[in-house]
Write a structure and sequence with these properties.
The protein is of the alpha/beta class and about 230 residues long. It has one domain (about 1-230): Rossmann fold, CATH 3.40.50. About 40% of the residues lie in helices and about 20% in strands. It is built from nine helices and seven strands. The chain has helices at about 1-15, 20-30, 60-70, 90, 110-120, 140-145, 155-165, 180-190, 195-215; strands at about 35-40, 55-60, 75-80, 100, 125-135, 165-175, 225-230. It has a seven-stranded mixed beta sheet, sandwiched between helices.
């Protein structure tokens, strides 16, 4: 029960970190097509920012689906588990040219099954945009509270994507300063989550984070992004 409470607190924190959500979507917008499926959409924090001709959300959580429909009423959303999805035909008919999935597969024990189903859903020539937490060595209390099975690095993410049948086009990082914040909060202080004050701080410093990421050439950061083609 306490784990679920911490997980919900982390989701509430992410929903308030609006400047970070905007930065994430701005960073991957050039790779989005016209028909996007947001897998693991949660309550719609990033889905509502995608701004493409056709967008659909997908999540396994009843709570998130209900919140999504309340917060993003103009976007269709379905409830399904990407790791155990058997019949992909109901999704293929939408001819998605992009699958976007942000901070999702680390929550899935069988991440290979999840990627295999993403490949099956995506139209030929379509693009996968996948964001995951970077650096396994950073796994700490906040990862555990957020129900993460793992964190990734470039090699493990590259292998996962290629083994699923995708052709990897690029990998880059976001949020270089976040590495130090996550290490202090999750490894040293062993905090389970962050509060509204931290979300407010992130919103205020995000313009600086954007500049720092450009200065380091997006070669290091708390988040890792893979862009791949089917």
């Amino acid at each position: 029960m306490k784990e679920q409470e911490a997980y919900k607190a982390n989701m509430d924190f992410v929903s308030k970190a609006v400047a970070y959500n905007a930065y994430l979507v701005d960073s991957i917008r050039p790779d989005l097509g016209d028909r996007v499926l947001d897998i693991g959409c949660g309550i719609g924090n990033t889905t509502r920012l995608l701004n493409r001709p056709f967008v659909m959300g997908m999540d396994v959580s009843t709570y998130y689906i209900e919140e999504f429909r309340r917060r993003v009423p103009d976007v269709e959303v379905i409830q399904a588990d990407i790791a155990t999805l058997d019949n992909v035909d109901t999704l293929r008919i939408h001819e998605f040219d992009t699958i976007f999935s942000s901070n999702v597969i680390e929550h899935i024990e069988d991440d290979r099954a999840a990627l295999a189903n993403m490949w099956r859903i995506l139209s030929p020539g379509g693009t996968l945009v996948l964001l995951v937490p970077n650096y396994p060595a950073l796994y700490g209390s906040m990862d555990a509270a957020d129900l993460h099975f793992r964190r990734y690095d470039r090699d493990s993410l590259r292998e996962l994507v290629i083994d699923a049948g995708f052709r990897l086009e690029k990998i880059f990082c976001l949020n270089f300063p976040g590495i130090f914040w996550w290490f202090v909060s999750g490894k040293l202080l062993r905090r389970p989550t962050n509060g509204e004050s931290e979300a407010g701080l992130i919103n205020r410093v995000m313009p600086v984070v954007r500049i720092i990421d450009r200065l380091v050439g997006n070669r290091a950061g708390l988040s890792l992004v893979a862009v791949a083609r089917k």
